[in-house]
Amino acid sequence: MTSRRYLIVGAGVAGATAAATLRAEGFDGEILLVGDEPDVPYERPPLSKAWLAGTAPEIAVHPADFYGGQSIELLTGVRVTELDIGARRVRVGPSLLGYDALLIATGGRARRLPGFTGERVHHLRTRADADALRERLVPGERLAVLGGGVLGCEVAATARGLGADVVVLEMAGMPMERVVGPELGAVFAGIHRVAGVDVRCGVHVESVEEIAGGLVVHTDQGPVECGALLVAAGLVRDTDVWEAAGVPCADGVLVDAGCRTTAPGVFAAGDVAAHDHPRHGRTRVEHHDTAKRQGAVAARAMLGHDVEHDVPHWFWSDQYTHTLQSCGDLADTDEFVVRGSVADRSFVRFGLRDGRVASVLGLDRPREVMAGRKLLLAGHPVTAEQLRDESVDLRRVMRPARA
Questions:
Q1: Reduced to 3 states, what is the DSSP secondary structure of residue 50?
Q2: 205-214 long-range contacts, Cβ below 8 Å, gap at least 24?
Q3: Which of 46, 100, 216, 240 could share a disulfide with 209, CB 3.0–4.6 Å?
Q4: Quick one: angle between helices 177-194 and 150-161, nearest 10?
Q5: Which pTM value belongs to this model?
Q6: Which of 156, 217, 158 is closest to 189 using CA atoms?
Q7: Are 369 and 352 in contact (CB under 8 A)?
Q8: Residue 72 scores a pLDDT above 60
């Protein structure tokens, strides 16, 4: 009997998790994990924080010897350039590799802006990107960050911790506005300004010019001089090969709740996947937790199990001494209820829908965030008064009253 080969393209957390899950579920065929970076699969969240700061000793998903120990063939530093769905094979360099099931976990690449090039213009998606950027983050050097989203704000915080001067140029009215809204975006603007970051919102960046020893970033509000520029303008999903082969894509590879595409034997997980979430509908997210969970779900689906990724989206962001945590769909709410104080930068904002928690977003209140997350997962009814009242222990709300 010919051994089956399961091919995973994309050696990030989704791909590495899928490979490990296949073995844990008892798959005894070939597993080939292909990645275009030279490194073993690693965690990306530290790239803008501990790894960028030089304080993370290692960020690998698994130790390097894990893959050999699990009979997982790891092929790094190469790209898949063609897919033949009918023949079930891909091209890697000059070689054609057949497969019985294919998992697409290629994630994406940092968005490039026309004209924004040069050795002082940086992007942040890979470990090599972080290593190159770290060389610029020294006391007295000025870093301009184009984009005040989560990534841009995390890098700004790390850069300030390393002693660099930082200016954030954000087109929206507040940093992180797309994620948390304008009111809470203002909270993060205040946090960064207290730390010494020059936060400029409502700014349109037009071009960048290289000068002796640095750059000039031209904006509609005047020039900004800096030693280096980070372009944090979002992610472009890596779908070119799959779309050309006929795999349905729309700002990501289209998959059902179980990470299956409509192409026979083809699955997708992680940042590259446009997932039909049972709770949230068709969504595309770029969260570590989602990539890891989808990798495990996809592996089980590849084995023929009837599975779904239905866990509400969860993400976090560490900036200075502050931790933001979020769970659920922030837009799927009837009303918001705040516990704590937004002005004091210590709060949880709950989104309610039909008398149940639909979203949780907290700053520096991890226990209450986790309690709210449990309420969300259980679908337990709760009142706005219970959520708002800090004397109510949210961990006890679901417990039945004693007779």
A1: helix
A2: 205/146, 205/169, 205/171, 207/115, 208/115, 208/116, 208/118, 208/121, 210/118, 210/120, 214/120, 214/142
A3: 216
A4: 20
A5: 0.94
A6: 156
A7: no
A8: yes
Please tell me the distance from the alpha carbon of residue 21 to that of residue 23, in angstroms, as a whole number.
5
Percent helix, strand and coil across the chain, each rounded to 5?
25, 35, 40
Which helix (DSSP H) or strand (DSSP E) does residue 198 occupy? Answer: strand 198-201
User: How many whole angstroms separate alpha carbon 290 and alpha carbon 271?
Assistant: 8
With 60 as the cut, is the pLDDT of residue 402 above it?
no
Cite the DSSP H helix spans in 26-97.
50-53, 64-69
232-249 pLDDT, tens digit per residue, is: 999 999 999 999 999 999
pLDDT at 299: 98
Q: Cβ distance 100 to 5 under 8 Å?
A: yes
**327 close to 376: Cβ distance less than 8 angstroms:** yes
- Which two three-digit tokens encode residue 338? 């705040």
Mark 30-64 as b/e (b = at least 16 C-beta within 10 Å).
ebbbbbbbeebbbbbbbbbbbbbbeeeeebebbee
pLDDT surpassing 50 at residue 403: no
Question: Facing residues of 224 across strands?
Answer: 217
Helix, strand, or coil (residue 168): strand
Query: What distance in Å separates the CA atoms of residue 260 and residue 374, rounded to the nearest whole number?
Result: 28
Q: What is the pLDDT of residue 171?
A: 97
- Note the pLDDT tens digit of each residue in 99-143: 999 999 999 999 999 999 999 999 999 999 999 999 999 999 999
- Six-digit token string for 297: 């779900």
User: How much is the mean pLDDT over the chain?
Assistant: 95
| Cα–Cα dist 206/280, whole Å | 36
> Where do the domains of the chain lie, and which CATH numbers do they carry?
5-109+235-302 (3.50.50.60), 112-231 (3.50.50.60), 321-396 (3.30.390.30)
Beta-carbon contacts of 93 under 8 Å, excluding residues fewer than 6 positions away, are 78, 81
3-state secondary structure of 187: helix
The set of residues, in sequence order, having a beta carbon less than 8 Å from that of 225 and lying 6+ positions away, is 142, 211, 214, 215, 216, 217
Phi, psi of 286 (to 5 degrees): -130, 55
Three-state DSSP class for 335?
A: strand
Name which of 161, 179, 170 is nearest 325 in CA terms. Answer: 179
* C-beta separation of 6 from 31 below 8 A: yes
Which pLDDT does position 3 carry in this prediction? 83
Cα–Cα distance measured from residue 171 to residue 147, given in angstroms and rounded to the nearest whole number:
7
